Amino acid sequence: MSNEAEDVLRIRTPIGVDYAWSAGRRSSAYLNGLLEGRLIGKRCPSCTRVYFPPRNGNCPMCGVLLVDDDVEVGPNGTVTTFCVVNVPFLGQKITPPYVAATILLDGADIGMQHLLQEVDAADVRMGMRVEPVWAPREDWGPTMENITHFRPSGEPDVDFTDYAGQL
Amino acid sequence: MTDETADGPGYAIAEDGSFTAPLTLAYPYARTVGPTYGTFLTGLAAGKVHATVSADGTVFVPPAEFHASTGEALTQWVEVASEGEVVSWSWESAPGNAQPFDRPFAWVLVCLDGAGTSMLHALDVTDPSEVRTGMRVRVRWAADAEPGIGAITCFEPVTTGGAS
What we know:
- The structure holds 2 protein chains of 2 kinds.
- By secondary structure, chain A is mainly beta.
- Chain A has a 5-stranded antiparallel β-sheet with strand order 8-7-6-9-10, with no helix packed on it. In chain A, strands 4-3-5 form a 3-stranded antiparallel β-sheet, covered by helices on one side.
- In chain A, 26% of the residues are buried.
- In chain A, strand 7 (98-105) and strand 8 form a beta hairpin.
- In chain A, 7% of the residues lie in helices and 34% in strands.
- The mean pLDDT of chain A is 89.
- Chain B is mostly beta strands.
- Chain B has one domain (34-157).
- Chain B is 7% helix and 37% strand.
- Chain B has one helix spanning 34-45; strands at residues 12-13, 19-27, 30-32, 49-53, 59-60, 76-80, 83-92, 105-112, 119-123, 136-141, 152-157.
- Chain B is globular.
- Chain B starts with 11 loop residues before the first strand and ends in a 7-residue tail after the last strand.
- Residues 1-6 of chain B have low confidence and may be disordered.
């Protein structure tokens, strides 16, 4: 065959799809809250559980549609479970060891995961009280990245029985 | 998730208060092509169309690695013409981002002269009345395409009485 050109051994085959994504009315209340530095969840009108971040759709526990019952939660919360990340991996932005914690914000009935910093990983414990650390206000957008991380608030630990129902 | 490169904040808020934002899901795949397609694509880069030939004389364009009926490994090569005949076609009325043209055009199955199978590519016409089964078409070569089938920009109609 012709050897005028370099032999082709490999080709690029990029694929992609462009979406116009809509957050929907309920998640939009959450995003709008973040723009103002507020944490907005939704309360189920039937079982009164508060979801944060709020779900578009129905309460997974009792099936009732989550209507526009906004509830401000936090900003402080309680560590319910946590994971100490010791393993380096490609694309890691934080030097291990660090703590990824499930945080039950005050007034919410479901934990959210966020980064826990300004504390030695060995000192993190279930029931520990934490507070958010916000990015500079001029950097805020409709994103949970407005909170760079959580840190211990210094409040007394919460007893396990007080959050056993929200694990 | 939001487009931070945009001049604005990268999102918009609809009349009902819903947040909307562009979201692109893309993967920059690359793959090795193997000896058979490698030979085909190397030929295209040099402005030639190479085909594999089976023991029964069938000429495969694009090249097959194996005969579909007999399982015979195809290692014999032949060069075919860069001109041929439309076997079948379909009208593309709403082209997507990565397609050969940004306006309506025809997808055609072309059986190149000397080939026993047909290949799919785009035909540079702007109206369905300009394409028909049996019409003569030729390859329009790309000047500086990266390796791949894009070495053929598209097919174009061969005008009767033209210089070909």
